[in-house]
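**Fold tokens**
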Amino acid sequence: MGLGRVEVTGGFLLLLAWLNYLDRSFLVPMAVLACGVHELGHLLAIRLLGGTVREIRLTAIGAELVLSGPLGYWQEGAAALAGPGVNLLLALLMILCASVIAKAAPANVVTKWVFYFLLDAAALSVGLGLFNLIPIPPLDGSKVLFALLPERAYLTLMRYERYGMLVLLLLVWMDVGGFYLSGAIGVIYRWMIGLFF
């Protein structure tokens, strides 16, 4: 499977270095794993739907996949759902591995560290998946919403797509909806934990 051209921007590298410098609890490796699997979900879905990725751009605000040609509305929505869906599957897999460690591995410092790393990474993966379902561009939820809208409404909303990131940053900064998103993450994470513990 060809990935196309991969471009890593200076902003991405600076953000990664800064976060790694500040990281004391291994959040950066967890985030890199969750984000990498998220984008892999998009890549696989695009490939299965007959699309080709011409370029992958890693920027300070995330990854951008540039396709060789457009996908249809429904295909675009399916490819957008693949990233968050894979995040939820990754969280389930990590919780399953943590439950196997809890039940079968000898208790020591290493197994305890791996156990908590898996559980924390699972929570982060659930959070990334749900956050990306918010229907504000450039997040995946906006692509799903656009795929469900009639063409006229889609074209109207596309005129405002370029302001999506600004709106998103303002909402995050003002913590609008954070309570509900955190609650949803907690509910899904606890449900997943209940499946294996």
User: Anything to note?
Assistant: The two ends are 37 Å apart (CA to CA). Residues 73-104 form the longest helix (32 residues). The chain is about 70% helix and 10% strand.
